[in-house]
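Field log, afternoon session.

UNIT: design team B
ACTIVITY: writing a sequence onto a fixed backbone
BACKBONE:
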């Protein structure tokens, strides 16, 4: 090896063997032209629609300088960029600012004064603070005067990489900072790393992907087999394997179903493949097929716009004869809605004017459908109110007309009111009062400690329709601020709601505990605001009493203060859906 190196190394070949650390390998002309074209399209979109809202320098940090003999550290200025779609930070050195300043194709006469280069005391606190102030004014000037001649500035802040590679995946979340706060690591392509399947369902993902990649003419049949096989098993797939299913695996040289659906020919097999492929794709994102649809939707919406565009979905939604049109529009709508894309980005995503018109028409139909469903729910509520008994006496009337408070709920729990029986499932019973107050009684065979855990920490595992419960703030061992996340399912749509509440566990005596859940006026965290349709309010009083050593009775009183939540419960009270039975079946499985 030494001999080979010594023969290869000559002054003439030195430039071929070594390159500077910051230098990247040369791209082929075709690759370079494509990248430049993509960047130009995106830059045009950014400039025309004023997508960059703010820019500033929010921090500085030093790193060791291993090259210079004059100074020990290099100063990095952390730039924060806020856009309509993402916020991110990126560090830059003074020398990089200087190169940008010297390269700008505009007059420097009207620019803010640029900080001068110093030979000594370049890293003193005073110098750094002064430079930070002047460099921030320089950046803000460029943003204020941003036009199509200042693409150098957009290159400098690396916005193309953020939008096309990291803008919509796990590296840079919507309206949040990068997890790597100073963006010191390159944002790589979002293709998943090579992983190994952990169960039979995951093995079958790779098996079917190989078949789809190898037998193009049989894809329609393979998609049908996949839809049948993974019903009841799709929830066993890990997030990484699910992402492989969608976008493929570069290391295995496997295409995902999104790339496969981008192939367009006019033969019958291709049409069948599209129809069955989009149908399977849609079902992965729906609760009727996939109990973990929330996770699948999250993974799907983290796919970058660059990757989504490879599917060329506009070609599937144009034309009246496309049988895959409805499913492709449904998938597109989920992506746009979950990422809260604005009109400019939707236009960039779809490209085709006809596809944009088709999508607008689809959205309008969805709105009309939702209005019809709301009307049906209101009609159901009116029928429900007719079935409800009138208030039996003036005391009940006075209590029920009070402002909703915890004291009111405690008083109701202590009174002998005319509760209306709804249904029973294995000695667990459900009642309602005026369609607003819900009472459920649960005799369970477990110690009181486990009962408390089941109705607090483990509630999301059995309460049908509840997808998530998190502690936002822990006050002490007994008090906390929680957020509960619910989805109310229908055959084709679902309503998502989040509730922020104060939860307190109070010991009455050795055999009785009381749990109260009261609405909290805190703002919903951003990541919940992106996922739910609206914030709701409800109040709960949970009385847990130990009957014997291994027998506990739990009685829950709820005031459904939120009209939307009350409408969602109306079909339950009218026994139109088996919600209570599903919840009790899951509850028993935990005992």
């Amino acid at each position: 090896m030494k001999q080979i190196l010594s023969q290869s190394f000559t002054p003439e070949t030195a430039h071929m063997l070594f390159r500077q650390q910051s230098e990247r390998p040369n791209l082929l002309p075709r690759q370079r032209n494509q990248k430049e074209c993509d960047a130009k399209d995106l830059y045009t979109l950014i400039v025309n629609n004023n997508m960059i809202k703010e820019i500033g320098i929010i921090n500085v940090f030093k790193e060791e300088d291993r090259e210079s003999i004059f100074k020990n550290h290099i100063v990095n200025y952390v730039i924060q960029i806020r856009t309509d779609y993402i916020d991110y930070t990126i560090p830059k050195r003074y020398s990089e600012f200087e190169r940008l300043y010297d390269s700008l194709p505009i007059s420097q006469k009207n620019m803010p004064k640029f900080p001068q280069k110093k030979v000594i005391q370049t890293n003193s606190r005073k110098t750094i603070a002064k430079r930070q102030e002047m460099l921030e004014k320089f950046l803000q000037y460029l943003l204020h005067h941003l036009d199509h001649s200042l693409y150098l500035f957009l290159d400098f802040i690396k916005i193309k990489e953020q939008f096309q590679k990291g803008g919509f995946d796990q590296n840079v979340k919507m309206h949040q900072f990068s997890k790597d706060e100073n963006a010191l690591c390159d944002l790589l392509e979002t293709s998943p790393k090579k992983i190994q399947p952990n169960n039979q369902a995951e093995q079958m993902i790779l098996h079917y992907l190989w078949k789809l990649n190898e037998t193009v003419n049989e894809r329609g049949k393979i998609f049908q087999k996949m839809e049948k096989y993974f019903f009841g098993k799709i929830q066993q797939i890990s997030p990484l394997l699910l992402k492989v299913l969608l976008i493929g695996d570069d290391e295995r040289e496997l295409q995902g179903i999104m790339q496969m659906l981008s192939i367009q020919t006019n033969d019958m097999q291709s049409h069948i493949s599209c129809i069955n492929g989009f149908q399977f794709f849609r079902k992965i994102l729906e609760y009727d097929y996939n109990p973990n649809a929330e996770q699948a939707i999250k993974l799907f919406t983290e796919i970058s716009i660059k990757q989504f565009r490879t599917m060329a979905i506009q070609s599937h939604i144009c034309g009246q004869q496309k049988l895959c049109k409805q499913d492709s529009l449904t998938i597109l709508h989920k992506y746009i809605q979950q990422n809260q894309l604005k009109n400019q980005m939707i236009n960039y995503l779809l490209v085709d004017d006809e596809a944009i018109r088709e999508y607008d028409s689809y959205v309008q139909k969805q709105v009309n459908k939702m209005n019809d469903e709301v009307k049906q729910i209101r009609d159901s509520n009116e029928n429900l109110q007719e079935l409800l008994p009138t208030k039996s006496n003036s005391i009940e009337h006075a209590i029920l007309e009070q402002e909703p408070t915890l004291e009111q709920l405690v008083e109701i729990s202590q009174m002998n009111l005319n509760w209306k029986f709804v249904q029973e499932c294995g000695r667990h019973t459900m009642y309602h009062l005026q369609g607003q107050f819900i009472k459920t009684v649960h005799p369970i065979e477990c110690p009181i400690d486990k009962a408390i855990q089941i109705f607090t920490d483990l509630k999301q595992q059995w309460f049908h329709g509840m997808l998530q419960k998190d502690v936002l703030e822990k006050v002490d061992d007994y008090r906390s601020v929680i957020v509960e996340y619910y989805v109310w399912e229908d055959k084709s749509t679902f309503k998502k709601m989040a509730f922020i509440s104060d939860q307190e566990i109070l010991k009455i005596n050795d055999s009785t505990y009381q749990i109260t859940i009261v609405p909290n006026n805190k703002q919903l965290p951003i990541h919940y605001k992106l996922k739910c349709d609206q914030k709701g309010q409800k109040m709960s009083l949970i009385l847990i009493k130990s009957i014997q050593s291994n027998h506990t009775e739990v009685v829950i009183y709820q005031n459904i203060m939120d009209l939307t939540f009350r409408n969602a419960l109306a079909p339950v009270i009218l026994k139109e859906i088996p919600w209570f039975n599903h919840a009790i079946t899951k509850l028993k499985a935990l005992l």
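LOG NOTE: The CA atoms of residues 63 and 74 lie 5 Å apart.
NEXT ACTIVITY: expression trials, pending approval
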